[in-house]
Amino acid sequence: MSTFFRNFPILAYNFGDESTPAVFQNISAYISLIDEIKDEVTAYNTIFIDDDERPDTLSYKLYGNEKFYWTFFYLNEDIRESGWPLNELEIYENASKYYPNWTVTTQADITSSFLEGDTVQGLTSGWTGVVVKRYLDLGQIIIKLDDENGAFNPSELLRANNNISDQIQLTGAVVQYNSVHHYEDTDGNWVDINPYNPSTTGLIPITYLNRLRDLNNKLREIKVFTPETVVQIQSEFNKLLLRG
User: Fold this and answer.
1) Which H or E run contains 234?
2) Residues 84, 220 contacting (CB under 8 angstroms)
3) I need a labelling partner for 244 at 20 to 30 A (CA). Which of 1, 8, 12, 34 fits?
4) Is the torsion defined by CA of 144, 149, 154, 155 positive or negative?
5) CA-based angle 137:138:142, to the nearest 5?
6) Ordered per-residue pLDDT tens for the chain, 244 residues
7) From the centroid of its chain, how far is CA 73?
């Protein structure tokens, strides 16, 4: 069991309309000790967190003790705000959760058609769904399928609202997390395309899954205190907490 919160100050606080104050540990107490020394380059090393590495196991690997895991969060603002990096399976599960629909692309003008809420049907596949979002700058229509096991044909005709005069030719169809979020040049700059005549030569397509993976990888590079420093840090940290 973690001993991290053991030395946090004890407070009495009235929650809501309760007349009797509750006693709890003030875990919101902010100590600036680490922020004051985190830029001292001799006090830390930079490492890359391995897949499936947990804070407690990394602490044990670096310091021979699991109790120093909390220093990773105080020293690194990114993981303090966004959380510990995910493993590859968790990234995929998040992508499937947050981007579960289908993305179809077209070079047709859909400015005033295939609107959010419209029902659509693939004329070859027969699959049906509802438009939930459009990205006109990429020529994309995001569709929630009526049957989650369905799949549009990437080159079929797509009809809206069962209207024979309201149909378009698709140029692509893919599950949403594998669709393009944006394009970048070789320097990593975002680049706009012409959705009616897209020329992506020399551009790098960044999918939703790519983007989640890239953001997660940025969390993997963290600063960690040297073994000599971390013992001194915890001692001083506890002293400051006990002073209130």
Assistant:
1) helix 227-243
2) no
3) 1
4) negative
5) 110
6) 345 445 545 555 444 555 565 544 444 444 455 666 666 667 889 999 998 899 999 999 999 999 889 889 888 989 989 999 999 999 999 999 999 999 999 999 999 999 999 999 999 999 999 999 999 999 999 999 999 999 999 999 999 999 999 999 999 999 999 999 999 999 999 999 999 998 899 999 999 999 999 999 999 999 999 998 888 777 777 776 666 5
7) 18
Question: Encoding tokens for residue 105?
Answer: 């692309």
The Cα 50–Cα 72 span in angstroms is 14
Give the whole-angstrom CA distance, residue 116 versus residue 142: 9
Residue pair 130/118 in contact by the 8 Å Cβ criterion: yes
Q: Which residues of 141-176 are buried (b: 16+ CB within 10 A; e: fewer)?
A: bbbebeeeeeebbeebebbbeeeeeebbebeebbbb
